[in-house]
Amino acid sequence: MSGIILGLLAETSIHPGVGQTDSAVDLPVARERTTDYPYVPGSGFKGALKQKALEMGDSTDELFGKQDSAGMVLISDARLLLLPVRSLTGAYKWLTCPHLVERYARDRKREGLSDAHGVDFASLSANHVIARGDGKLFLEERNFERMANQDTPLDNLARFLGGVIANPAARARLGSQLAVVSDNDFNWFAKHALPVDAHNTLEQETKISKSLWYEETLPPDTVMYGVVEERTLLQKEAQSRDPSPLERVRRLFAENPYLRVGGNETTGQGWFHCRVVDSE
Is residue 235 predicted with pLDDT exceeding 60? Predict the structure, then answer.
């Protein structure tokens, strides 16, 4: 395959919404149907990239397509990789699980990058967690026993996952804040550990509540990634172009490595710090 991975570090809250629902949360985030992991649908991710290209004066129709014709690049969903979760033993932990690591490794392999350096987390016990320190680890209202003697695998995993994090300071502290829980435990946090904020509209004169709603967001420092590929039928044509379609995508982030995704941009939400991952 010919493509790049675009790492996404949330600088602000992110709301990849799905519209209003009848559940307790009026405006939830988009979730994968089979896993309940939060994600950014490919259509929204593509729209954000297209808007950035438009603002930079690139030919968006040729690169990303238009209603009656496809563009030269393929855009995946933006997938979750690391979820910030509150902890009594620190400000927060960056949480992941074997399934997310496996999916990221598979995506990398498809694009010709290395796998997870032989670190196998598939056999992780459901009653333990891999994280720095000793004793119990408290995450939200739950507590876990840490597995002993896991510093080396944790260091390897932090180096592997850290490649998608654009900010050097955040990347440097990943090893101390990384925690790996089982797939089942991570599913619980993905469902129940996201911020839910109440919003209210007041009558102008009486200040009486007119409309109260609850909105779910991805917290700042959430780490995601997306894959951008050249269309297979156009790869030979793309290779002869200067610059190539993938090079044009890289250039979108050369001087301004930020991308706005999702709703509530008028209240400062939606900013990702981006990093192109296309080599070791």
Answer: no
